[in-house]
Amino acid sequence: MTRAPLLSVVVPTRDEAANVGPLLARLSSALAGVDHEILFVDDSDDGTPAAIARTAAGDARIDVLHREGSDRTGGLSTAVVSGIHRTRGEFVCVMDADLQHPPEDIPGMLAAAREGADVVVASRYVRGGSRRGLGGTGRRQVSRVAGAVARGLFTEARASSDPLSGFFLCRRRVIDGIEFRPVGFKILLELLVCVPGLRVRDVPLDFAARAGGTSKASLRQGLLFLAHIRSLVFEVQGSARPWKFGLVGLSGLAILLPLIALLTGTARVPALAAFLLAYPPSLVWNTVLNRVWTFADQRHGLGEGTARYLERAILSGAAMFGAYAALLSLGGAPLLAAAGGAVVAMVLNGVANRAAVRRRPSLWSEVALGQGIQAALTRLADEIGASRATLLPATGPTSGALPSGIVERVVEQRRGALFTEAAGHRAQRRSNVEVRSTLMVPVVDGDEVAAVLVCERVARHPFDGDQLDAAMTAARALGGLIADNSGGRHRTQSLRPDALNA
Ligand code: GDD
Ligand code: MN
């Protein structure tokens, strides 16, 4: 394998034979001083690969991945994702082939990334940018509305003025190991929503008119955009959180209000008592939905989070009750009073949960930075119910308790693993026997696996997928910290929470 270049440029192409020659010419002068590679991911039937080969003239830095048949499934989105995975530059730039994205902008974008940005977006919507190249007012309107929808729904998309831009550059380490599943054209949006907490910089893009060939934008692309939005809302845990939180609140009202109507109407229960009876079911409903949906990404066990959530919910319930009673005493009908109380409670709830509603991807690094790696390990062990959490060196002899080869596999494949040993060689009839269960997660620092995080437990219930996820979240945060903190990445650290208490 040759050395990884500083920059990889990924260019998806479909029937761009007329454009790739001029594009390569401009790229090669724009990137003259930059250590780079260029990968075309091509789904063309018009001889685009031949046109690339003619211009590239044997330049080893230029490569084409030509796809046929079922490999083309997913079109542009899979093209860009596989292009990103196949290249190795420390920075990756994605751009269109039709010269709507001026190659001359790349050095500036690279400079911005080297100054510290994780993602640099060439934006049509910042000062100095323009979208003169967007054909027709209809297309412009659609683009405006789509951008507003994306930014309105996803807090993370607001980091850029143009989250739907097809021209961006990012630091590879922020996307390393993330499986992107975009649908359609909006790869950048996928990246922003799936990797929260990125440092994003916009640079102006003068979006030129298409040089040759035709745009692949169509009604179908529009529908795919909606499908992508749907997937980002429902298949990305913790995304669009304020909206999910609000929807759950509304759905709670759909339980509370009919119950109050029923109790005060047919059942003739006094209005104040009716509230006290109707509130608990809606509270349970809200709590469960918020836990499994709104806060699905914050799975630190059942304890702490839920207690804090319930505390707030009961406070807002009390405020709601107060408002309800006040409105009743002013002569309001029970339903109207309850609706009024709900408005008060929702505002309060929203304010109280504001911090929680924002994502906190850095929780683990905060613990590790503030209190040290050992503290982070102890806390993790507590949260997932492990008897201990340990860091093993990524190389060298492994602990005898682990099956041979498994640490090597975790390091090589860079994947978390979960295994459980049965109590004996026969299926057990008793349900209270204990099994040994082990989680192993690579701690990736830059390009290498710095350590393997191992959590063990001997209990009636083995670890599950949620706990594996929690360990991966913790491992990600530990990534950059091991080297600075432990004075060496080859030292084994281990701590038993029970030893601390003793
Ligand atoms: N490999 C591959 N497969 N490439 C494709 C496919 C496909 O199925 N469809 C399109 N491409 C390539 C095109 O050849 C071009 O290089 C690039 O993807 C963008 O396609 P265009 O057809 O030029 O898209 P556009 O100009 O309408 O849309 C551009 O602007 C949008 C913002 O308004 C793109 O950059 C979008 O990503 C961007 O959202
Ligand atoms: Mn285009």
From TrEMBL:
Belongs to the glycosyltransferase 2 family. Its main location: membrane. PANTHER family: DOLICHOL-PHOSPHATE MANNOSYLTRANSFERASE SUBUNIT 1 (PTHR43398:SF1). Pfam families: GAF, Glycos_transf_2, GtrA_DPMS_TM. Residues 8-175 form the Glycosyltransferase 2-like domain. Residues 244-356 form the GtrA/DPMS transmembrane domain. It is found in: Membrane. It comes from Candidatus Aeolococcus gillhamiae. GO terms for molecular function: dolichyl-phosphate beta-D-mannosyltransferase activity. The keyword RNA-binding does not apply. Residues 404-479 form the GAF domain. The chain crosses the membrane at residues 245-263, 333-352. This is Glycosyltransferase.
